[in-house]
Amino acid sequence: MAPLRGGPRLVLLFSGKRKSGKDFVTEALQSRLGADICAVLRLSSPLKEQYAQEHGLNFQRLLDASTYKEAYRRDMILWGEEKRQADPGCFCRKVVAGVSQPVWLVSDTRRVSDIQWFRETYGAVVQTVRVVASEQSRQQRGWVFTPGVDDVESECGLDNFGDFDWVIENHGDKQRLEEQLENLTEFVHARL
After folding, report:
1. How far apart are CA 11 and CA 187, in angstroms?
2. β-sheet bridge partners, residue 15
3. Computed from CA positions of residues 11, 191, 24, 14, in that sequence, does the dihedral angle turn out positive or negative?
4. What CA–CA distances, in Å, run from 181 to 69, 89, 190?
5. DSSP string, 75-92
6. DSSP H helix total and E strand total for the chain
7. Per-residue pLDDT tens for 34-59?
């Protein structure tokens, strides 16, 4: 399917484990491209907003990396899975509504169904980007394995996807990361 009229010129779907640096990488890319050209979209935002509304919780506190969010993470994962079972594109449709920039960076793609929805909706303008980091690097960023969080689809759904267009290594080597970001930035500029 061709991109929708007025739709994005490029959609980059970022995935990776918790504390791999997905947000860091997407924010770094947006700062290079500019917020007028590039929007960072988080599939978790509409999920957390709806979850907060239905459960009487503080939406803003669910957005940060706090113990508040962690206290609800498992239940939020289960709740989100139920919503996706009923409608796999429910959060995808919500996150893209009203976005006008030509480049979209979806910072938290977690499931094959997310990739399928974007590919079916936007076709050839979609590229997948996997952000990888060693377990040691993730631990240095505060990651601790949590049963029911790190061993479920929201963390493991794309482990065997294997068909990523880009792989960004974020093990802590700043120069190597800089080179990869530069390559991705050049690719984006070529698509504009």
Report:
1. 12
2. 130
3. positive
4. 30, 29, 14
5. HHHHHHHHHHHH-TTHHH
6. 9, 5
7. 999 999 999 988 989 999 999 999 99
Q: What is the pLDDT of residues 130-155, one digit of tens each?
A: 999 999 999 999 898 988 888 888 78
1 pLDDT tier (thresholds 50, 70, 90): very low
In single-letter form, the type of residue at position 110 comes to: R
The whole-angstrom separation of Cα 175 and Cα 112 is: 31
Q: What distance lies between CA 66 and its chain's CA centroid?
A: 18
> Minimal CA–CA distance to 78: which of 109, 46, 41, 51?
51
Put residue 21 in one of left, alpha, beta given phi > 0 → left and psi -120 to 50 → alpha: left
Q: Which residue intervals of 34-130 are DSSP H helices?
A: 44-55, 59-63, 67-86, 90-96, 112-122
- Residue partners of 38: CB distance under 8 A and separation at least 6: 29, 30, 101, 103, 104, 105, 188
2: pLDDT strictly greater than 70: no
Say what the pTM is: 0.88
Residues 6+ apart with CB under 8 A from 137: 19, 170, 171, 172
Band (pLDDT 50/70/90 cuts) for residue 157 is confident
DSSP string, 141-173: TT----TTTTTSHHHHTTTTT---SEEEE-SS-
